[in-house]
Amino acid sequence: xxxxxxxxxxxxxxxxxxxxxxxxxxxxxxxxxxxxxxxxxxxxxxxxxxxxxxxxxxxxxxxxxxxxxxxxxxxxxxxxxxxxxxxxxxxxxxxxxxxxxxxxxxxxxxxxxxxxxxxxxxxxxxxxxxxxxxxxxxxxxxxxxxxxxxxxxxxxxxxxxxxxxxxxxxxxxxxxxxxxxxxxxxxxxxxxxxxxxxxxxxxxxxxxxxxxxxxxxxxxxxxxxxxxxxxxxxxxxxxxxxxxxxxxxxxxxxxxxxxxxxxxxxxxxxxxxxxxx
Length: 277
Prior knowledge:
Elements: E1 3-9, E2 12-21, E3 26-30, H1 41-49, E4 53-57, H2 74-87, E5 93-98, H3 100-112, E6 117-123, H4 142-154, H5 156-168, H6 170-173, H7 180-192, H8 195-200, H9 210-214, E7 220-225, E8 247-252, H10 259-262, H11 264-276
Parallel strand pairs: 3-4, 3-5, 5-6, 6-7, 7-8
Antiparallel strand pairs: 1-2, 2-4
Helix pairs in contact: 1-11, 2-3, 4-5, 5-7
């Protein structure tokens, strides 16, 4: 499997697994918690069919990437992405993030700029800022995330199963837009991830991306379902355009957090329209 080295832990290299297919304009896809680059299966097929070069990668701790004991913060995630783009000499790219991956995209753009990037897509986003503070009253209380951390520490597998049930709105779409087999495949990927990452990634959801978004000087498309239980649209996607100079929001009616799977036809049509503009 192809990898890039992004650092070391003791005598071992910390490696990021990626897949690079096609030969057109590059589209780089950053996945959500607690999955891997495989979560983009339906977008990869559509983008390759449309003639694009498609790069997926597994965030550290997940999929085929290394599972180090540390580095689970958005400065490091953005640095990992920068190493990947630099190593592959990716230019004029469209960066696409889903869920946690939107934080990778936002922090990358805020820290490294847009020399290599032409456009960005934030799907079911974490930005701008999830935590409730005096200057961010729209956010959620710290106690909510403390509960998530406690649940993940106490019973990682139970937490991941419950998280994915909300990820897919499985009580609504299970057996129709999400087969039992697809759900079990996602759960298997999640359970194979790093136990450290399963807990350590949760506090990163409270990262403040407002300054990162303010630095973005390329067009941004925000796509989100109006039934997102993981990152409710009123706290996240609806607020993003206020922080970005050139951003528009597309709302998927009935869409859960996992719109890239459940509403792939609508997502792919919007994605292709945006990258072709």
